[in-house]
Design a protein that fits this description.
- It is a single chain.
- By secondary structure, this protein is mainly alpha-helical.
- It folds into two domains: about 10-65; about 70-125, no CATH class.
- The chain contains seven helices and no strands.
- The protein has helices at about 10-20, 30-35, 40-45, 50-65, 70-80, 90-100, 120-125.
- Helix 1 crosses helix 2 and helix 5 (about 70-80) runs antiparallel to helix 6 (about 90-100).
């Protein structure tokens, strides 16, 4: 008996991912569906498949992990007085969520890209959240 083929995203799913990334993950399903020429219901049906959800989440986390260096650059620039609208509170939320290293399932070591476990936002920005 043949082993079932490994699930892979189709072209439209890859297009949806690219649209989501270009929109910085701030999009409506209606706009996404219109932009790539599909029905909104297809988007929701995709998420019924475990394989699709795993792939989507992996790509989501990969996207943010790869952008951590830019975020840290903006935070340090803000801490040094550069007015770049960096928000310490928002940065902390992103860092707490995405600075854990490579996304699971990549085959890469589950080691942090950089470890900031003992660094607080006050250490980075010189400000408190008060």
């Amino acid at each position: 008996m043949r082993k079932p083929a490994k699930w892979r995203p189709n072209q439209r799913q890859k297009m949806a991912l690219e649209y989501a990334r270009e929109a910085s993950w701030d999009y409506s399903v209606t706009d996404l569906a219109k932009a790539i020429g599909m029905a909104r219901s297809s988007y929701y049906k995709w998420f019924e498949r475990r394989e699709f959800r795993q792939w989507w989440r992996h790509e989501w986390e990969r996207y943010f992990v790869l952008r951590m260096a830019r975020l840290w650059g903006r935070i340090f620039a803000a801490a040094c007085g550069d007015k770049n609208n960096a928000s310490a509170t928002h940065a902390r939320l992103i860092i707490e969520r995405f600075d854990g290293g490579a996304p699971a399932g990549t085959g890469e070591a589950e080691q942090p890209l950089k470890t900031y476990v003992n660094v607080t936002m006050a250490d980075v920005t010189g400000k408190t959240d008060e």
